[in-house]
Design brief:
alpha/beta; seven-stranded mixed β-sheet; binds S-adenosylmethionine; Rossmann fold; 9 strands; 217 residues; single chain
Length: 217
C-alpha cells in the first residue's frame, strides 16, 4: 500500500472536504504516519476515517476528530500543551509538530510505555509521556497554553481549568458515556468562555475528576 498517497487522500477527502481549514493542521496530518501508531494488521485501514482498536479496550481516534480538536486548540509554535489520554501517541505526535513542548498523560501503563517508545523511535524530542490520572492534569508542569482531553468526561475537571494559562484553551468531550459534545473553554482573567462544538463519541475519561465509579473497579 502507498501510505503517502493514502494520507494525501485522507487530508483532501476526509478533512478538507469536511471543513478543516487550518493549513498547519492539514500539513501535519499529511505528514505524520498514522499507520505506524497501529498494529501492523491494521495498517491498511489507517487512513480511513474511523477509530481503530489499539488494545486494552481503547481506540485511536478517527482522523477527522483529531483534526477538528487540533484546529479548535489553536496551537502556536511557542505553546506548552497538555494532552490527557495518550493512547497510541498519534495525537501527541500531531501536537508535537505544532507546539514547543507536549506533556501527555495516559492511565494505562502499557499504552503509555508503547507510545513513549514509538514517539522516540519517530524522532520526537519535545514530548514527555507520563503514566497517571490525567483527569487531575499534571500540576508539576502547569500552566499550559492548551489542554486537550481525548476521552469523554461527565463534566469539565476543575483541575484542568485551573492549569490553563491566561488565554489558554481546553478542548474536551463532555457528556454521557455514549455521546458527548466537544467543548472549547478559554481562560479569560478569572472567567472562562465556553463554546459548544460537534457531537462525538469517546471512550470514558476514568479518574478522580472523570468517571469515578469505573476508576474504583
Ligand atoms: N489520542 C489517542 C490516540 O491518538 O491514539 C486516543 C486516545 S483514546 C480515545 C483515550 C485514551 O484515554 C485511552 O488510551 C485511555 O486509556 C485514556 N484515559 C482514560 N482516562 C484517562 C485518565 N484519567 N488519564 C489518562 N488517560 C486516560
Amino acid at each position: 500500500m502507498d501510505f503517502s498517497s493514502a494520507r494525501k487522500s485522507m487530508v483532501e477527502y476526509q478533512l478538507q472536504a469536511r471543513g478543516i481549514q487550518d493549513a498547519d493542521v492539514l500539513r501535519v496530518m499529511g505528514k505524520v504516519p498514522r499507520h505506524l501508531f497501529l498494529p501492523e494488521e491494521l495498517w491498511n485501514y489507517a487512513y480511513e476515517d474511523h477509530p481503530l482498536s489499539i488494545g486494552w479496550g481503547q481506540t485511536i481516534s478517527q482522523p477527522y476528530m483529531v483534526a477538528i480538536m487540533t484546529e479548535l486548540l489553536n496551537v502556536r509554535p511557542s505553546d506548552k500543551v497538555l494532552e490527557v489520554g495518550t493512547g497510541s501517541g498519534y495525537q501527541t505526535a500531531i501536537l508535537a509538530e505544532l507546539a514547543h513542548y507536549v506533556v501527555s498523560i495516559e492511565r494505562i501503563k502499557e499504552l503509555a510505555e508503547g507510545a513513549e517508545q514509538r514517539l522516540k523511535d519517530l524522532g520526537y524530542s519535545n514530548i514527555k509521556v507520563i503514566c497517571g490520572d490525567g483527569s487531575l492534569g499534571y500540576p508539576k508542569e502547569a500552566p499550559y497554553d492548551a489542554i486537550i482531553v481525548t476521552a469523554g468526561s461527565p463534566e469539565v475537571p476543575d483541575s484542568l481549568k485551573k492549569q490553563l494559562n491566561e488565554g489558554g484553551r481546553l478542548v474536551i468531550p463532555v457528556g454521557g458515556t455514549n455521546l458527548q459534545v466537544l467543548l472549547k473553554i478559554i481562560k479569560k482573567k478569572d472567567d472562562y468562555l465556553i463554546e459548544k462544538h460537534t457531537s462525538c463519541i469517546f471512550v470514558p475519561l476514568i479518574g478522580s475528576e472523570g468517571w469515578k465509579r469505573m476508576a474504583d473497579n
